[in-house]
Amino acid sequence: MDPVTLYAMPGSLYSAKARSYLRKNRIEYIEQAPGDPHFADAVVPVLGRWIIPVLETSDGTVIQDTVDIIDYLDADAPPARSVYPATPVHRAVAHLLDLFGGEGLLRPAMHYRWDFDDSNLPFLIKDFTSTMAIGADDETREGLFKFASERMRSATLAFGVREDLVEQIEASYLEFLDLFDAHLANSPYLLGGRPTIADYAFMGPLYAHLARDPYPSVLMKQRAHRVWRWVERMNSPIADTGEYGTISDELFADDAIPDTLQALLAYIGEEYLEDAVAQMVSVDAWLADHPDVVDGEVVLGKPNRRFSGTTTFTWRGQPMTVSVVPYRMYLMKRLQDAVATGSSDDQAAVRAVFAEAGLDPLLDVRPRRWVVRKDNFEVWAPAQEPHIPA
Ligand SMILES: N[C@@H](CCC(=O)N[C@@H](CS)C(=O)NCC(=O)O)C(=O)O
Predict the structure, then answer these.
(1) Is pLDDT of 92 > 90?
(2) Could you check whether the bond before residue 3 is cis, i.e. omega within 30 degrees of 0?
(3) 355 CA distance to ligand 1 middle (Å)
(4) pLDDT in tens, 115-147
(5) What is the pLDDT of residues 343-367, one digit of tens each?
(6) pLDDT above 90: residue 154
(7) What is the domain partition of the chain in residue ranges?
(8) CATH architecture, range 88-255
(9) Is residue 152 scored above 90 in pLDDT?
(10) What is the pLDDT of residue 141?
């Protein structure tokens, strides 16, 4: 493959997912900042919005969305090396963790970035503006940071970071760190000896925000050394598994889910299931209110509209209100599609693992239209019979 260009920023959440894939797979690439004029002149007009990461191939093809970027790069990987495991349970769990990693961990990522200004802000100002406006003067940089950070700060509320919930958000994150750290005691990656889409998705929140911003990086190093090492490993072009001795790069044998991973899945069942289902129900209700939507129509009319309203569900015994992200319907569909390709025995094996974690509703729920992607836009999939939990 000719070298590719990744438009990305060190401090960007989703950039870390794509960058890690490129590095781990030793794909020759150049990383360019979105402040590069080519981005504004040739990339943004194709996408119709400012968004990173973006992959540009040597023939000028532009690909946005980390799912689509990784699928494009992974298309030639032999099945035994693909980020999508070949066995049914691992494949389904990888998709579930893609959803949880990329979307479910946004709340702690946002909190630990934007609620610790004394520690984080001096770093973030330099970090953001150096790549968004290359070589700009201080006044321009400050104006730019103000604009960009206000947009992101307001997004913290969209993901449920509310002052009265901060204690719970922190307790929830520490629990996550402990569970992931315990899992990494015996294996270098989520599903065994090599990374899958699950690890790349986790890299989104866990790299730029939680391992790199000043305040949470210390927390991670002190509380969960193995998680911090996993982040380092995920950016390394080698296996970087020295502390595990001589190990195989295979996934767990027999499609097994070790107890430490099952414990992490149970945590996701407790912490995230209601959120995911509430999002789906709300998207379905939005579609019921918009019966004129047609197949292939851009979701919410414009590519940079991300939220279709808000929804409230119970989280840790409290009402939690968040914005609804139709994009998640794309990830949920992919999970169900992956399960559907298996035999009935395969599907039963997946269901058993999901049910043990209380996650089996995710195998069945569906809105009246899924979200798919076409030409770098999220678009509505054809209408279907919805399956809304009672
Ligand atoms: N689903 C997208 C999400 C990408 C995304 O949200 N990127 C952020 C930076 S990490 C962004 O460009 N935000 C700009 C904006 O929303 O205006 C992906 O997986 O690539």
Answers:
(1) yes
(2) no
(3) 32
(4) 999 999 999 999 998 888 888 888 888 888 888
(5) 999 999 999 999 999 999 999 999 9
(6) no
(7) 4-80, 88-255, 265-383
(8) Up-down Bundle (1.20)
(9) no
(10) 87
CA 164 / ligand 1 centre spacing (Å): 27
- The pLDDT of residue 221 is 98
* Most ligand 1 atoms within 8 A of CB, residue of 51, 67, 156 to mutate: 51
Q: Please state at what angle helix 259-289 crosses helix 327-340, rounded to 10 degrees.
A: 120
Name all residues whose Cβ lies below 6 A of ligand 1: 12-15, 50-53, 65-66, 327
Q: Mind listing the pLDDT tens digit for each residue in 302-354?
A: 988 999 999 999 999 999 999 999 999 999 999 999 999 999 999 999 999 99
What is the best residue among 9, 14, 132, 306 to mutate for testing ligand 1's pocket, by most ligand atoms within 8 Å of CB? 14
Q: What is the mean pLDDT of the chain?
A: 96
Q: Are 269 and 358 in contact (CB under 8 A)?
A: yes
Rounded to whole angstroms, the Cα distance separating 326 from 127 reads 30
Per-residue pLDDT, averaged over 279-292, amounts to 98
Q: Are 226 and 181 in contact (CB under 8 A)?
A: yes
Q: Which of 21, 52, 159, 207 to mutate to test the pocket of ligand 1 (most atoms within 8 A of CB)?
A: 52
- Contact (CB, 8 A) for 180 and 224: yes
CA of 51 to the centre of ligand 1 (A): 5
Please name the residue ranges forming H helices in 224-321.
Answer: 225-234, 259-289
Predicted TM-score of the model (pTM) = 0.97
133 alpha carbon – ligand 1 mean position (Å): 18
**Ligand 1 atom closest to 306 (CA):** 16
252 alpha carbon – ligand 1 mean position (Å): 32
CATH code, residues 4-80? 3.40.30.10
Q: Which residues, 6 or more positions from 211, have their beta carbon under 8 angstroms from its beta carbon?
A: 217, 220, 227, 228, 231
Residue 255 CA to ligand 1 center (angstroms) comes to 33
- DSSP class of residue 255 equals G
**Strand pairing partners for 380?**
371
